[in-house]
Amino acid sequence: MKKNNLKFSCVVFATLLFAGCNNDFLERNPLNRISNDTYWETENHLMVYNNSIYDRARNDIDVPILMAHDDGFDSNNQSIWYLDEFSDNIAPKHSRHNRYQEVRAGKHNVPTGPQMYGWRDGGWAFVRAINVGMDNYDKALANVSEEIVNKYKGEARLFRGWFYAEKVSKYGDVPWVDTELSVDSEELYAPRTPRDEVMENVLADLTFATEHLPADWGDGGGPGRLDKWDALLVKSRVCLFEGTWRKYHGGSNAEMWLQEAASAALDLMQNGPHTLYSTGDPDNDYQAIHKMTPDLTGVPEVMYWRRYQLGVFTNHVRLLKMKILSKLQVGKKLRIVE
What is the pTM of this model? Predict the structure, then answer.
């Protein structure tokens, strides 16, 4: 009898236990890692996410837009300085720079994989990161104003428009993607998007950035975030290239692009805070700005700069150049010296 009572009690307890289960309680987001469902709630969430986009943009061979010197030893052949090796301004002799010489001479074989500054996976991962943000920023509107959300959208769209403009300048038609894709997305197998359509999207991105990025992030001109004035600079250069290309290669709406370039440049010059660095010594001021300490905070001529810090992000370009020049491993034309 006691055994039957025990069995009956167990059945009743189990029935009550399962009946009392709450799916909402059981399906809870983990507390020990970030969840997409709970992340996009504050301005700080948006800022920290965009920090990851800046971090990806530091990899110049994947995302060749900000362009400075790569980290550590990689700066020996991956740097804005070396882009002139694709032209006849610099004649490198070290084997690490063979790629530049081959492209310049038109004697390179078609590579089996993506090359520096080209069609690299890291570049498209950069676009994906931007699109993930674009698909999620608006979730913060429950707690954050639209003006603040648009600041971070502006950062992302500036990066996306700038990246695509660079790719169009090299490849013409490229696949335009503006949303997060999965492994099953049909867009992964879609043909390239026509140049005109891509550049219309680029112009929309850059215009949004100029309209919504703040004029000042409050960082004192430190190596922080891209602002409205940076966006106007990028827009003017992108539009100038596109308008000129269309004018001399038979494209449409060349004048519209050139006018957009002129308008962006005029806005920057007339309303921006930047001026030429001057101490009243015009013969030496230009040289002086290149001899400053690694901190360029507050220098009015500098619109954006990259900080190098020992143990964090470094380069040895200056040391490398001194060694190369001392061994005569590089030749320079007179015009680049001047």
Answer: 0.84
| DSSP code of residue 301 | T
H/E stretch holding 335: helix 334-337
| Residue 213, Cβ density class (10 Å: 0-12 exposed, 13-18 middle, ≥19 buried) | buried
> Rounded to an integer, what distance in angstroms lies between the CA atom of residue 306 and that of residue 123?
19
pLDDT confidence of residue 253: 95
CA distance 188 to 261: 33
pLDDT tens digit sequence for 16-51: 555 555 555 556 666 666 778 789 999 999 999 999
DSSP class of residue 313 equals: B
Identify the three-state secondary structure at position 28: coil
Residue 78's nearest CA partner among 89, 86, 68 is: 68
CB count in 10 Å sphere of residue 85:
20
pLDDT at 145: 97
Closest by CA to 209, choosing from 258, 255, 158, is: 158
Q: What are the helix (H) ranges across 83-145?
A: 98-105, 121-136
Over its C-alpha atoms, the chain yields an Rg (Å, rounded) of 26
Q: What is the pLDDT of residues 115-136, one digit of tens each?
A: 888 888 899 999 999 999 999 9
The one-letter code for the residue type at 118 is G
